[in-house]
Amino acid sequence: MLTAGMFAFAAMHAVDAMRRSMLTARGVLACMALLACTAGQAGEVEVLHYWTSGGEAKSLAELKSMMTNRGHSWKDFTVTGGGGQNAMVVLKQRVLGGTAPAAALIKGPSIQEWANLNVLTNLDAMAAFEKWDNLLPKVIADQMKHKGHYVAVPVNVHRVNWLWANSAVLNKAGVTALPTTYDAFFAAADKIKAAGFIPIAHGGQDWQDFTVFESVVLGVGGAAFYNSALVQLDKRALTSDTMRQSLDVFRRLKSYVDDKAPGRDWNVATDMVIKGKAGFQFMGDWAKGEFLAAGQQPGVDFSCSAAPGTANAYTFNVDSFAMFQLKAWEAQKAQGYLAYLLMGQDFQEKFNLRKGSIPARLHMDMDKFDACAKASSKDFVAASKADTLVPSVAHGMAVSTAAQAALRAAVSEFWNNGKTTVDDAMAKLVLAAGYAAPGHRQGDQVDKQR
Q: Which phi and psi (to 5°) does residue 233 adopt?
């Protein structure tokens, strides 16, 4: 249902909207109807998120400031760790208990799972008012909708298949060029290890293992193979020679990780690169926010490049806020303003400058962004045209939560248990693919959350 808060918020801006020549006759009539609603008192938004690291926290501070400047109050509902896994467990408890937050950081097929339970708010009035269909790439807009209706708001696009490097470490080790193949990467890693540094900074958590793995699969097999194996979960691809080669490369990478990695958070691993303890890290571009927060400059103190073999492809991860149904009118009004801010040019620019990602909105001015972000934006457009833009499976953009959890477990076991053979790993990947059978995909029940 369309909430009164969404209507009321739109009413506050209807006069300005009617001055826009782009508005259709239908849009004008809608805005006139919205004028009948009156503005109420400011409300509170409770937001469930897991942006707790340095760069992420600074990014979120921008949004909090914008909300409070309007008179609304903000209540954090933070859940640390797990790349969002812990957050989904807590959210399930809140929703089932009848105390859903105003918004929660949810993405990909998980949005559909929650929408199927009829607990999300219809955002169509706001989306039509602000012309979201014209502002978002279709691949992103479709993920924000349930049965054609907007229920979530995207705030950014992350590139996952990045390789981060400490420039000083590479120089001291005699690595003169960023590796573009795995043969070149292993040669560089050997030099870094010989120089007394840790070649790969890694956090021993299953989602981080899977993040590295999907970049390896993309680099070894290419975008078409990646889609067949990890998105479509085709048995032939999962048991192919290409997958065998991918697993061999993945296991070899483990030998360049220090023995203190198990349980390490991703931002702690990033800090190892920042402080010159390690040479490389495989991680999405949220890691850049940590470098920037530490006062480092891209191209000087650190470098960003596509993971080996993936220069012409792009794994995307879109952060988005799903909006839950609220009873209190004041809370609905604050929720509507939150949705408006999230899609606004001002917030998307400020947020992504701090976060390390790029705006979800199209046609944004990238002049203020650094070289890594500009490269990401350029590559995103190029990959979409070349059909090499692929969803990050590790970060919940492709398969159901049940399938993702099973894949993640299989990959992490192979990474951590040296006795697990490549054949064993492929068999477990095939077994994990069974969770993506009809009835398990976007219609998964919430009790199958990670």
A: 55, 45
- Encode pLDDT of 268-317 as tens digits: 999 999 999 999 999 999 899 899 889 999 999 999 999 999 999 999 99
The per-residue b/e assignment along 43-64, b for 16 or more CB within 10 angstroms, e otherwise, is: bebbbbbbbebbbbebbbebbe
CA 231 and chain centroid, separation: 16
Closest C-alpha among 43, 31, 47, 36 to residue 70: 43
CATH architecture for segment(s) 159-310+390-448: 3-Layer(aba) Sandwich (3.40)
- Asked whether the beta carbons of 308 and 185 are under 8 A apart, the reply is yes
Residue of 297, 277, 281 whose CA lies nearest to 201: 281
* Residue that is written with structure tokens 């999405």 in the block: 284
Tell me whether the CATH fold assigned to 42-157+317-355 matches the one assigned to 159-310+390-448: yes
User: Among residues 68, 137, 148, 77, which one has the least CA distance to residue 106?
Assistant: 77
d(CA 139, CA 384): 9
Boundaries of every domain in the chain: 42-157+317-355, 159-310+390-448
The CA angle 418-423-424, to the nearest 5 degrees, is 60
Rounded to whole angstroms, the Cα distance separating 204 from 260 reads 8
Instruction: Tell which residue, 350, 348, 332, 385, has the closest CA to residue 121.
Output: 332
**Topology annotation, domain 42-157+317-355:** D-Maltodextrin-Binding Protein; domain 2 (3.40.190)
**Model confidence pLDDT, tens digit, residues 171-224:** 999 999 999 999 999 999 999 999 999 999 999 899 999 999 999 999 999 999
Q: What is the CA radius of gyration of the chain?
A: 22
